[in-house]
Specification:
66% helix; mainly alpha
């Protein structure tokens, strides 16, 4: 478990740290473009805060439930389908997107909106052509049942339960 925690922490710093931290900084130097309306700044703060919370929750699920990391080089031993993963299959990517969108609102920087579009196009392609086939090979029918029941990108209202296939 300690190895999974350390690996996940390292991956958190490298992957989301670069994608939602270093790249937005490189694009904006954290400088605002004018004086955005307070409502947009507040909405941005909410998105960054919520995205950060979801991201940390998702990483913790990989350690505690999956006994592994989100990094493809050190995958989980078990399929992660608890917590927020009962509502949506890709909460980490959605969280990173929320953080980028929030930064765009806080800083009033359209370049972060363009970056957000590029980010989602990239991760959607990665999920479709790498992650999903890899998880299907690794976890078989369990992943297929999960994939049929839980949407990839738009959270379902009621949490899915593997014990209730009709849900």
């Amino acid at each position: 478990m300690a190895r999974a925690a350390l690996g996940s922490l390292l991956f958190l710093l490298v992957a989301p740290g670069v994608v939602a931290g270093l790249v937005p900084w490189a694009l904006t130097r954290w400088e605002r473009d004018g004086d955005p309306p307070s409502a947009l700044v507040v909405a941005g703060v909410v998105l960054v805060t919520a995205g950060t919370g979801v991201l940390l929750h998702a990483f913790a699920r990989f350690v505690l439930e999956g006994v592994g990391t989100p990094a493809p080089v050190a995958p989980t031993q078990r399929l992660v389908i608890g917590g927020l993963y009962r509502h949506v299959r890709n909460p980490m990517y959605l969280a990173v997107g929320a953080i980028i969108a929030g930064q765009g609102l806080i800083l009033a920087r359209p370049v972060l909106g363009a970056y957000l579009v590029l980010f989602f196009a990239t991760v959607a392609t990665f999920v479709r052509f790498h992650e999903e086939p890899t998880l299907t090979r690794r976890f078989g029918a369990d992943y297929e049942a999960y994939r049929r029941a839980v949407p990839g990108w738009w959270p379902r209202r009621q949490p899915w339960s593997p014990r209730d296939p009709a849900a």
